[in-house]
Design goal:
Elements lengths: L2 E7 L5 H12 L8 E4 L2 E5 L3 H10 L3 E3 L2 E6 L26 E8 L14 H33 L5 H15 L11 H8 L9 E7 L1 H5 L4 H9 L4 E4 L1 H9 L2 H10 L6 H13 L1 E8 L2 E8 L4 H8 L1 H5 L1 E8 H7 L2 H6 L4 E3 L9 E7 L2
Parallel strand pairs: 1-5, 1-6, 4-10, 6-7, 7-8
Antiparallel strand pairs: 2-3, 3-5, 9-10, 11-12, 11-13
The structure holds guanosine-5'-triphosphate and magnesium ion.
Length: about 350
Amino acid sequence: MSFSCGFIGLPNSGKSTIFNALTALAVPCQPYPFCTIDPNVGVVPVPDARLFGLADLLKPEKVTQTTIEFVDIAGLIKDAHKGEGLGNRFLSHIRNVDAVAHVIRAFNSGQVPHVYADIDPARDMDIVETEIIISDLEIVEDRIRKIERLAKISKDKGEAEMELLLRVRRYLEAGRFVATDDFDENERLALRAFDLITAKPLFYIANVDEEGLSASPQPAIEAAAAKKGREVVYICGKLEQDLSALPEDERASFMELYDMKEFSIEKIIHVGYHILGLITFYTVVGKEMRAWTIPRGTTCVRAAGKIHTDMEKGFIRAEVINIGDFITCGSEHAAREKGLLRLEGRDYVVEDGDILHIRFNV
Ligand SMILES: Nc1nc2c(ncn2[C@@H]2O[C@H](COP(=O)(O)OP(=O)(O)OP(=O)(O)O)[C@@H](O)[C@H]2O)c(=O)[nH]1
Ligand SMILES: [Mg+2]
C-alpha cells in the first residue's frame, strides 16, 4: 500500500460522496481488485501512467499497481467532544491512518443544508480541527494520569514518556497540531504509539461547485490553508459522483466538458506523496511488473527488503534504470547501449521512477 488517508469534515461537506466516487471509479483500473474491507474503508489502486507505459512496452502477464486506502467517518460539529452531533468517539477509526484529508464544504446548494448556514471555509477548518485537537488532548491527559498512577506503585516512573507527553500537550493546549519536525526520529516513533490525529500530516479537499472547479484555486481557501501551511486539492463531489456512474468510454468527454484535467485520485496521490515524502520505484520480475511505494531517502538494500526479506539479506547489487528513460529507449537492450543502465550498491539512495533489478544470493 502507498498510504492510508482518513476523511474528516463537517456533516454534509461531501466526505461520503467523494469516498464513494473515488472507490467506485477505481474499479475499472484493475488488475488490483477494489476491495471493501468495511463499508467505510476502501482500497483503491493508484493510477500510474509510467507503470502503464512500461506495461505497453513489455506486455507482462501481471501488472500490480500500488494502492491507497481511504477511510470515511461521520462528520464532526462544534462541541462534538461534549457529545454534540454524533460525538467524537468515531475518530478512533482514523487514528491509524498515515494522512488526514479535511473535506471542506465549498459548494452552494439549497438542497443540502450547511450545518452553519453559510459557506465559510476558514471557519469550518477551525471548528473541525479544534475538535480534533481536543480529542487528542483527551488521549494525552488520560495517558498522563495513568503514568502518574503507575509511578506511585512502580519503579519505572515513565519519565521519558511523560516528558514527551508534556511536550505534546503544549502544542494541543495552544490550539495547534503537533509539529513533528520538532521531534527527533526516536521521539517520532514513540509519538506514533499515541495514535494522535494531530501528529499526522493534513491536507484539504475543497469540495467545490462545478463552476468552482474551473475557478480553482480559490483565493479565500488558499489564504486560509496557507495560514496553516497546508495544501489544497479541489474536487467537485457531485461531478465525481456523476463521472463514477458513467461507462469508462464516456468518461474522457465528460471530463473535458467540465474542464476536469485529471482524476481526483491523482490529485490526492500527488499531495499525499508530497506531504508524506513518498516515492515510487518499479520492478519487473519474471512475468510480473510492479510499483512500490517507499519513503524518499530509502537505500537500495532497504528497498530490496520491501520486495522480499531474502533480497535484503542476500543483497549483492542492483541494476537501475529510470522508467522514463526505459520507455523512451523502447527496450532494455537500447537503454543498455546508451549507457542508461547503472549498477548500484546497497547504499545507493533510490530515486523516484527507478526500475530496480536486484541481484541477490540466498
Ligand atoms: N451540489 C452538490 N452537492 C454535493 C456535493 N458533494 C456532496 N453533495 C451532496 O451533499 C449531501 C451530503 O453529502 P455526503 O457525502 O453524505 O456528506 P458527508 O460529509 O459524508 O456527511 P456526513 O456523513 O453526515 O458527515 C449529499 O446529498 C450529496 O449528494 C457537491 O459537490 N455539490
Ligand atoms: Mg458521510
